[in-house]
Amino acid sequence: MDLLEGKAINLRVMEKEDLPLFAEWINKPEFIGEYNPLRQISRTEIEKGFEKSSLEQGEFIIEKKDGSKIGYMWHFTSVHPAVKLLEIGYFLVPSERGKGYCTEAVNIMVDYLFLSKNIIRIQAHTELRNIASQKVLEKVGFEKEGTIRKSIFNRGEWRDANLYSILKEEWKEQKILTKTA
Ligand SMILES: CC(C)(COP(=O)(O)OP(=O)(O)OC[C@H]1O[C@@H](n2cnc3c(N)ncnc32)[C@H](O)[C@@H]1OP(=O)(O)O)[C@@H](O)C(=O)NCCC(=O)NCCS
User: Fold this and answer.
1) How many other CB atoms sit within 10 Å of the CB of residue 9?
2) What does the alpha-carbon distance between residue 119 and residue 113 come to, in Å, rounded to a whole number?
3) Measured from the CB, is residue 28 less than 6 Å from ligand 1?
4) DSSP letter assigned to residue 21
5) Cα-flanking dihedrals φ and ψ of residue 27, to 5°?
6) Residue 111 class from Cβ within 10 Å (0-12 exposed, 13-18 middle, 19+ buried)?
7) Would you give the distance in Å from CA 56 to the centre of its chain?
8) For the chain, how many helices (H) and strands (E)?
9) Cα(144) to centroid(ligand 1), Å
10) Which terminus of the chain has a lower count of CB atoms within 10 Å, N or C?
11) What's the rounded Cα separation, in Å, for the pair 13 and 90?
12) What gap in Å lies between CA 16 and CA 8, rounded to an integer?
């Protein structure tokens, strides 16, 4: 069994071979969704970014059990001189939304991060109107910390975001990630 195996989906570490599909996804407004900034990134830039990525960052493809690739999940560290905050982000292809896959993927990621890294909190930002994303976080046990006003520049305007987090003490037990011991 792979380490990041769930019931309906798995998280698989992203490889160089996934980059063409990732480039196709990330440049499509339907994939990014209306609550995330639009961007156009060349394959070359995506490849350069991938080569530069460090162990502070992890990128995963969300796959169904039949191996079909349905989304992207990553963790990264937002660095400030005094604080290091571990954050997650996620996207699903439009045809696979609303089936509970993202909730499962976030559960797996939370299990993985608390079991593998010496961290006490995981956070996520989501645009105020992004109800689906906030429902996912709440279902996994994240708490809303507050509103970060005018922090996302999207579609020509500054929009508010909500900041969510889950603390290690609130994460009572391993839910999804396959037990390996
Ligand atoms: C956010 C996203 C990842 C959620 O993935 P998903 O697999 O559809 O999520 P789930 O099915 O696990 O759960 C979604 C929940 O939101 C609900 N939901 C979906 N759209 C909604 C809407 N417009 N209003 C209210 N609730 C909504 C679903 O009913 C479900 O809740 P339920 O289980 O109580 O019924 C997906 O919508 C997406 O990829 N969006 C575009 C990218 C994005 O916004 N990423 C997040 C960046 S912070």
Assistant:
1) 26
2) 8
3) no
4) H
5) -90, 0
6) buried
7) 14
8) 5, 7
9) 16
10) C
11) 14
12) 24
The owner of tokens 């905050």 is 85
- pTM across the whole model: 0.94
> Using CA atoms, how far apart are residues 91 and 55, in angstroms rounded to an integer?
21
pLDDT 10s digits, 150-160 = 999 999 999 99
Among the ranges given (52-56, 68-72, 123-127, 146-150), the one the predictor scored with the smallest mean pLDDT: 52-56
Best residue among 88, 133, 154 to mutate for probing ligand 1's pocket (most ligand atoms within 8 Å of CB) is 133
Contact 102, 127 (CB under 8 A): no
pLDDT in tens, 104-159: 999 999 999 999 999 999 999 999 999 999 999 999 999 999 999 999 999 999 99
Q: Helices marked H in the chain — which ranges?
A: 19-26, 29-32, 43-52, 101-116, 131-140
Q: How far, in Å, CA of 122 to CA of 114, rounded?
A: 9
Question: Does residue 159 have its Cβ closer than 6 Å to ligand 1?
Answer: no
> Which residues lie closer than 8 Å to 75 by C-beta, 6 or more apart?
57, 58, 86, 87, 88, 109, 113, 122
Distance, CA of 92 to CA of 96 (rounded, Å): 7
Tokens of 169: 């003490």
